[in-house]
Amino acid sequence: MGMKVCFWHAFSHTSDCGHSWAALGRPFLLGGTALRPAALLPKTCAIMTSGKTLAVALISGGLDSMVSAARAREDGHRLLALSIDYNQRHRIELAAARRIAGVLGVERHVVLPLDLSAFGGSALTADIDVPKDGVGDGIPVTYVPARNTIFLSLALGWAEAAGARDIYIGVNALDYSGYPDCRPEFIKAFENMADVATKAGVEGEPFRVQTPLQHMTKADIAREAARLGLDAGMSWSCYDPAPGGLHCGECDSCRLRAKGFSEAGLPDPTAYAA
Q: Is 70 exceeded by the pLDDT of residue 207?
């Protein structure tokens, strides 16, 4: 018998870029950040049944991760959402991740602090300029070393602990910046690793890394957001935010986002500085 549940996004940060921690359903205050009641999000009402399985969805706050997580919900899963605060240049995306998690009615949203700027090696985590001259050949300096390997490993750990066997990630290997950890062969290799590195895997309960956007163009992804009834304006894509909370309009991510809406023939809800 189904039980109607209206999820209350009970706490949000007074600072959009403050740390959040919701592991085990207990919000923690990090760095003195205060929590305040947030508005009830009517779209988070859902019919939950005991037959639905859990899935962990990686939600960065970007368009791709938003659509991927919505596909997980459409596939019939109850959702656990994982976002990583890796001290990225565009930490504003974490505010978008919180909005998306609230609208999708996730059962728990963990924003996990993991400061990858301690390693550097990327324009997103070090004092390196973000390229603004268009999408080029090769792997750009916005590549964060082993980022998706790290993020999927964290999602895998939570999935095993929670009894979930599906992990959703919004990687794409068509209209993308050439990152090696977005390719199908990487995803397959990670699944193989998960099955030999976990108790669940060796006991015959394999993990599935779901990549519903893997072979979509950005135009396809924009159309999919519209089909799912998502407000694409909730998401954040820019690597180098401009003053006033605007997308810069010139980095690879902004260019690919704008290209997607244009080729899809859909209005672009994004506010660009250029």
A: yes
